[in-house]
Design a protein that fits this description.
Number of strands: 0
Strand content: under 5%
Number of domains: 2
Shape: elongated
Order of helices and strands: HHHH
Largest sheet: none
Radius of gyration: 23 Å
Helix content: over 70%
Length: 76
């Protein structure tokens, strides 16, 4: 059982973290490039938020948005 957990430790620290080690070394040279993954996720979140707000506006304009507190049966 001990070798199983040592194998897991080897897998995660020596193999799966190779891309993250690259970004760690890159941070010393260029902070912006090292944080590219973070910037991509931020852009995705902003795009999803804008899409969500547009959809809420569409539903509100068409009157499909039911804001009554008894909209769900468990609230009545």
């Amino acid at each position: 059982m001990k070798t199983f957990f040592e194998g897991l430790g080897y897998l995660f620290t020596d193999i799966l973290f190779i891309p993250l080690d690259f970004f760690r070394k890159l941070e010393l040279k260029n902070w912006w490039a090292a944080n590219i993954i973070t910037w991509v996720f931020i852009i995705i979140c902003i795009a999803a938020f804008v899409y969500w707000m547009k959809q809420l506006k569409i539903f509100k304009e068409t009157g499909e948005d039911n804001q009554d507190t008894t909209a769900h049966s468990f609230l009545s």
